Amino acid sequence: MLDKYGRLEKVIKVYSRQPGQLIRILQQAQEIFGYISSEVQAYLAARLNIPLAEIAGVVSFYSLFNSEPKGKYTISICLGTACYVKGSQEIFQAFKNELELDDDDTTPDGLFTLRSTRCMGACGLAPVVAVNDDIYGQVKTGDVTGVISRYREKEPADDYERQRPFAHPATAPSPH
Amino acid sequence: MPADKFTFEPVSPVGREEDATRPVARKKVRFWIDGREVVAEEGISVLEAAHRVGIEIPSLCYLKNINEIGACRVCMVEIEGSKNLQAACVYPVSAGLKVRTSTPRVLRARRTVVELLLSDHHRECTNCIRNLNCELQHLADTLGIRNIRFTGEISNYPIFNKNPFIVRDYNKCIKCRRCEAICSKVQEVHVYSAQNRGFNTVIAPSFMKDLAEVACITCGQCVIACPTASLVEKECIDEVWQALADPDKYVVVQTAPSIQVTLGEVFGLPVGTVVTGKLVASLRRLGFDRVFATDFTADLTIMEEAHELLERLEGRGGPLPLLSSCSPGWIKFCEHFYPEFIPNLSTCKSPHEMFGAITKTYFAQKEGLDPKKIVVVAVMPCTAKKFEASRPEMGSGEWKDVDFVLTTRELARMIRQAGLNFRQLPDEEYDTPLGIASGAGTIFGATGGVVEAAVRTAYALTHGREMGVIDFEEFRGISGVKEAWVELKNRKIKVAIAHGTGNARKILDRMKAGEQFDYVEIMACPGGCVGGGGQPIFGSRDHKEISLDYRHNRADALYRIDYSRRIRLSHENPAVQKIYAEFLGAPLSETANKLLHTHYTPRGPLPGYAVNPVQ
Amino acid sequence: MITSASDLLHIRQQHLPLIEARLGREEAAGEHQILVCAGTGCSSSGSHGLREELKKQVEAHQLQEKVKIIKTGCFGFCKLGPIAVVYPEGIFYCRVRKEDAADLVKGLASGQVITRLLYRDPATGQHARRMKEIHFFQAQHRIALRNCGLINPEDINEYIARDGYQALAEALSRQPEEIIAAISASGLRGRGGAGFPTGRKWELTAAAPARPRYVVCNADEGDPGAFMDRSILEGDPHSVLEGMAIAGYATGARQGYVYVRAEYPIAVDRLERAIRQARRAGLLGDNILGTGFSFNIEIRLGAGAFVCGEETALLRSIEGRRGEPRPRPPYPAQAGLWGKPTVVNNVETLANVPVIIRKGAEWHASFGTKGSKGTKVFSLAGSINNTGLIEVPMGTTLREIIFGIGGGIPGGKKFKAVQTGGPSGGCLPEEMLDTPVDYEALTAAGSIMGSGGLIIMDESDCMVDIARFYLEFSQDESCGRCTPCRVGTKRLLEILKRITSGEGTMDDLKLLEDLSHDVKEASLCGLGQTAPNPILSTLRYFRHEYEAHVRDKYCPAGVCRNLTRRPVLH
Question: Which ipTM did the prediction report?
Answer without folding.
Answer: 0.93
